[in-house]
Amino acid sequence: MNTLIITGGHIDLPFAKKQVDTGLWDCVISADSGLNFCREADIEPDVILGDFDSADPDSLRYFREKCPERIRTFPAQKDETDTELAVWQAIRMGSDRITLLGATGSRLDHVLGNLHLLLPAMEAGVECLILDEHNRIRMIRDTLTMRKTEQFGLYVSLIPVTPRVEGLTLTGFVYETKNDILAAGKARGVSNEIRDDVARIEMKSGILLVIESAD
Known about the structure:
This protein has 215 residues and is α/β, with parallel strands linked by helices.
């Protein structure tokens, strides 16, 4: 199941509408003020959840009248963010792939928190991507094959999540490595580029953020 989560960070409307209009989604989940975009884009989510402290009151009222059975309200004082609730909901529903729109923006605390949500999805065996008009972000702990024809933007950056990523081998990139170590606290993995038709990231241990950037 391919699930789209729309949450309350920065959303570039033309880019987001283009993603929604691909029709690839088996399920759409709206988290809190993601409702605002859903109403504007005429999307009726399959699940609407959150504490709704930042949702537009008119948008919330609209969906309460249109599809009240799809709304799940949580208290404002809770351990999880609304985006985290949406990710766990998608996992429980059996998603094989999750894409998050609205998970980046000017609130760096939320951005960092959302990056951390890639970890439980990965541990559950679910591919999870954060997507905006400039970046596509995923978390990996084993081999990733990337095709030049399918890349998102020009640059590929590798950021270690664990203190060390060991046995790192990069092939098909401008900057290649063989059985190398990428350590936290350094920016060595930033701004690589795919050179060949197919590029591969392999590692023996550790966890990486893979960030493809268009700008």
